[in-house]
Design brief:
Blueprint (H helix, E strand, L loop, with lengths): L1 H17 L1 H6 L26 H14 L1
Amino acid sequence: MLTFLATFAVFVLVVLGMSLGWIIKRKSIQGSCGGISSLGIEKVCDCPEPCDARKKRMAREQQRII
């Protein structure tokens, strides 16, 4: 039981340590390299034109914004 409690305490400390940036600055976690946008790709798939389902989804999103 002591091993379980010690392990649980370590995990709680690690999670608390990892969340200090958000707790103090209210800033979300970011990648260090800038992600896919640093490669010049603006979307996940590198298709020249989105598929029909994607076009419908984008149209619905535009309707919500307007």
